[in-house]
Amino acid sequence: MDPSQVQQAIDASQMHPVTAFVRSIIDFGPYTMFVVVSYAAVFIVSALLIFNAWSDERRQRRALAALEARGIRRRSDATRDAQQETYQS
Amino acid sequence: MTVQRNITMTKLSTIANPSFFIRLSDKLLPWIAAASAIFFCVGLYLCFAVEPDARHGETVRIMFVHVPMAWLAMFGYMMIAISSIGSLVFRHPLADVSAKVAAPIGAAFTFVALLTGALWGSPMWGTYWRWDGRLTSMLILLFLYLGLIALWHAIEDYSRAGKAAAILAIVGSVNIPIIHFSVHWWNTLHQKESAIQFKITEAGLQISSGLAAPYQVTLWMMLLAFTCMFIWLHMKGMRAEILRRRVETMTITRVSQAEQLKPAE
Q1: What is the pTM of this model?
Q2: CB contacts < 8 Å between A and B, how many?
Q3: Long-range contacts made by residues B38-43, C-beta under 8 angstroms, separation at least 24?
Q4: CB < 8 Å to A30, chain B
Q5: Percent of chain B with pLDDT strictly greater than 90
């Protein structure tokens, strides 16, 4: 759609200019719905996967920090510290 | 020979060490995210800038998301199958973590590949779904992914769950060549591969494409963008899973320490 057609559409329907601009970009004729739904599905699923990966790691880091704050340590960390103390003494 | 093999095994076990993996991914993740973002910016611009195809019209734009999703759905399953071999043969916990984390990501990509395929199929074939070779084998792939996720959640013990899931993953990997060759073996609605074609001739292996240059460039950009995103999600998921296992081990330690401190009755 060229700019003059967009302007005509705005004038005819009293459409908000932003809405008219978006419509001019995502106008794929009779296939608009198929294309838009495909990209929307990809976007939603990707966003959910990214958010889940990010929040899951954050949750585990907090849980680990809470346990370490209570003085609980992994066996491997405790062994490494004991070895370091032996070397130092 | 034995010394060389031992050195290789030591190097492999250093790389596959969970703490080393977390340090390495700390450095790699920002670069992978940046690469993915750049490929997405260029790819998405091209997706909407290319001219409509003569045969598929405006629906050709669906191809730029559908093909990467389908490719990564199979890539994800191959990753699980290879990790499962690593888990069963070398019994390495990081291989186990890799297989577990790749399943939900692969399932999501397979679901989107089926959905975008149906949305592309409706205007092109006149139907959203048909029980033909390619579509049915992709649906089986989704069920395999869901089966793996269910198996992981059904068995509480990590090593037992990992072993059972690894066997299922290796057996299920037979579906990958079926998906790939389904368009050659059976008469399907789905077109034969046109994005990348491999041909073995007298001159050797030849790689070609049935797509016009602008579509090829756009598809490769989106393929690289989604592949980087998949690797980022997988690495991030592996880090969370390693930390989850540490938290559980430490919680068990805490409980056992508390029981030892309890005065005897």
Answers
A1: 0.84
A2: 93
A3: B39/B221, B39/B222, B39/B224, B39/B225, B39/B228, B40/B222, B40/B225, B40/B229, B42/B221, B43/B218, B43/B221, B43/B222, B43/B224, B43/B225
A4: 123
A5: 54
